[in-house]
Write a structure and sequence with these properties.
It is found in: Membrane. The protein has 5 domains: 70 residues; 108 residues, Ribonuclease Inhibitor (Leucine-rich repeat, LRR (right-handed beta-alpha superhelix)); 78 residues, Alpha-Beta Horseshoe (Leucine-rich repeat, LRR (right-handed beta-alpha superhelix)); 107 residues, Phosphorylase Kinase, domain 1 (2-Layer Sandwich), CATH 3.30.200.20; 202 residues, Orthogonal Bundle (Transferase(Phosphotransferase), domain 1), CATH 1.10.510. The chain is α/β, with parallel strands linked by helices. The strands form 4 sheets. An 8-stranded antiparallel beta sheet has the order 16-15-17-21-22-20-19-18. It binds adenosine-5'-triphosphate.
Amino acid sequence: MVTFYVMCYRLISFSTLLHGTSSGISLQKPPFLVAQASPKRHRFEMAMWVPFHVTAIVLICIVVMTHPSERVNAEPTQDRQALLQFISLTPHANRVQWNASRSACDWFGVQCDSNRSFVYSLHLPAVGLVGPVPPNTIGRLTQLRVLSLRSNALTGEIPADFANLTMLRNLYLQNNHFSGEFPAALTRLTRVTRLELSSNNFTGSIPFSLNNLTHLTGLFLENNSFSGNLPAITLNLTNFNVSNNRLNGSIPNALSHFPATSFSNNKNLCGKPLQPCTPFFPAPSPSPDVSPAQPVEHHHQNLSTAAIVGIAVGSAILALLLLSLIIFLCCRRRPRRAKPPAAVSTARGGDVATSSSKDDITGSVEAAERNKLVFLEGGVYGFGLEDLLRASAEVLGKGSMGTSYKAILEDGTTVVVKRLKDVAAAKREFESQMEVVGSVKHENVVPLRAFYFSKDEKLLVYDYMAAGSLSALLHGSRGSGRTPLDWDTRMKIALGAARGIACLHVSAKLVHGNIKSSNILLHDATHDPCVADFGLNPIFANPVPSNRVAGYRAPEILETRKPTFKSDVYSFGVLLLELLTGKAPNQASLSEEGIDLPRWVQSVVREEWTAEVFDAELMRFHNIEEEMVQLLQIAMTCVSLVPDQRPNMEEVVRMIDDISRSVSTDEGLRQSSDDPSKGSDAHTPPQDARTTPRSDTS
Ligand SMILES: Nc1ncnc2c1ncn2[C@@H]1O[C@H](COP(=O)(O)OP(=O)(O)OP(=O)(O)O)[C@@H](O)[C@H]1O
């Protein structure tokens, strides 16, 4: 501007010279600053000064208005450098010709603010940009409000210096090949309202720190490879899409109002608006919506009187039929009311109501119809169906009757949900069997807490036994790093399991039907055993345990096809052999055809290699040989081929108890004789030698 002004000045000075009025005017100083030679000349110069400046200003205005590209000195110099550096380092299509001799504000895709002092927006969609965004280029456009690099072939990670674009409102980076984790820099752009990162190769989790973007209304992350859980994004979003990623877990409540298409095609996302989260639960049946494509027809305008009378009569008949049906249902349920299922209480949504108390018929019908989660008496849980639906679930294992899940509810309660398959029993039959099963209360029995029955799903809810199963304890991770299961613990498990089964047989008159080491579960710290999975055979079409449990199956079952108390004793005998030998029944033989565990033990004992029978891990403990042999004898009686030669479970309990008792008596005697005051035998082994490996004590 100053240069231009001086030029104008020269122009006007020259014109005054032409008029022979001002030969001695210095070019360095304006005329009004020059020492005045004479009053006449001064007057002349003063007279010339005003028109000179007015003319200069007018000329400047004309030039500026007619040649905007030539605006004097209006150039975002810093941003220009950054842009030039970006384009020189990034291969691009010919369309992007940024002429260095022109202002950056006039370049293709670049927009400056009204003062042309900074780059306001950069739009370079589909211009063939290839490769990574060079660091320290775009990140220097600190006043940028809009950045669009969409639909190019940009690769690599978003540079960390994007965090400097703090004025950014809209960021369009979709349809590129960007990769890496969610760009942490973007979570600092607190003014961003629209963030489009879709159709790239981003991986890793979607950060919770997106909640920093308090102005965000549109978040588009679809068609990437984001994984993990969806964070609870509590922003005021109006557009949201994470479809076609690898997300799993439940959809946070804060996002559940978006349509299913916002979440579709993920690895394992669940919860509203998608399927309920618990894999052991059925999807809600689709609501009978009237499709908008099928407009409801309105015929009533043209209905004749006869038709109206017909409809009225039809409706009355229908109402009467419904009424009769309700009365019929009520009457059918009346005997149940006279003798209510003492154990059953029902719950929904956390409200537990005891059906044996007020038990009005309508409520009972409703409960049945609504397929509630039915809690059994003495229940310690207060959750309802909805809570179970929202729980996170992990598969514990697939068994012969279905799949078991460890379900962790939102309040931290952990239960096991067994999803039964191929149940043959009808609803009432199922319910009454579960009431019997649920009525069993014993410290060595895993209590059934609740059940659910619908046409599509049959679920059982049990306590979660944190120490897992005897099977896992005996056979899991054998070898280095394993803590051997000591003899006392094995004896405790044998006795506890026997007591649990005896309780089923004697108190509940229930055949277990599926005794095996994976159904002996252990309390966390104490390793106290609990018998699981009992009393379920009657609800299946084929009550004979599958081949999976062939190793525990009593031989007569092949013929009778019905588990009995005595076949339970046989299975328990096999379980004792498993405890003694450390071998899983199905792996007892080396050959494919196999000899089962009882027969293998029998053959070894016959050959008088009894010591070979026992688990090598047990050989490390002191003073247990006699007890091991005694337990082996009990086991062998249990696995007698003839059912009548087997003891009943009460006898088994007594026999095992006797071993334990004799041990404790011996221990007591030993202890008293160890007492120095009573003159102990110095060679008596210390008390803990039974649970301590030899190597440690020798
Ligand atoms: N209440 C529970 N607490 C802890 N673990 C359990 C519980 N119930 C079952 N499990 C474990 O879950 C796994 C699967 O059990 P599930 O009962 O479904 O099958 P299984 O015992 O292997 O076979 P089956 O169905 O023939 O009894 C097993 O390893 C079992 O020990």
